[in-house]
Structure to design on (160 residues):
């Protein structure tokens, strides 16, 4: 990647589906039992819906996808980040921050809250979301897999 911030653009269904392989191969999704075919179908379905959005980050136009975020609207007076993934090769290069900045600007312009959850054992996610200004709302035991705990976080629209 260059010193320029990643380019963020909406994903079409075929491109969204194609990201499932690398996402399912990395933790925490691998440990949660995600499989690429099912994840790909879900990504394609979400990308084709108008109420939910998938955004991709690339270093340059038509370059390889470095990161992806899936946002679902109409969640507790806000939007919910259902998935945020950055390729290992792009970690620490501002890809996650660029995706979050894009989503926050869109979501918090019209909604009160932006939510996200992460697996309690994912310390990197915990640090990342705290640096982005998210605060803990609560724990969701057994949500995605028995014996695992998701931590729900939220960030509010800045007060004027």
């Amino acid at each position: 990647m260059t010193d320029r911030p990643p380019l963020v653009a909406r994903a079409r269904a075929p491109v969204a589906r194609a990201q499932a392989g690398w996402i399912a191969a990395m933790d925490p999704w691998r440990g949660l039992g995600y499989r690429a075919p099912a994840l790909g179908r879900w990504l394609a379905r979400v990308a084709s819906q108008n109420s939910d959005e998938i955004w991709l980050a690339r270093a340059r136009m038509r370059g390889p996808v470095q990161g992806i975020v899936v946002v679902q609207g109409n969640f507790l007076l806000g939007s919910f980040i259902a998935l945020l993934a950055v390729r290992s090769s792009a970690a620490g290069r501002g890809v996650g921050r660029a995706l979050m900045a894009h989503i926050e600007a869109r979501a918090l312009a019209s909604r009160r809250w932006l939510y996200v959850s992460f697996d309690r054992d994912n310390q990197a996610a915990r640090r990342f979301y705290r640096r982005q200004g998210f605060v803990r709302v609560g724990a969701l035991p057994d949500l995605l897999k028995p014996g695992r705990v998701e931590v729900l976080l939220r960030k509010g629209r800045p007060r004027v």
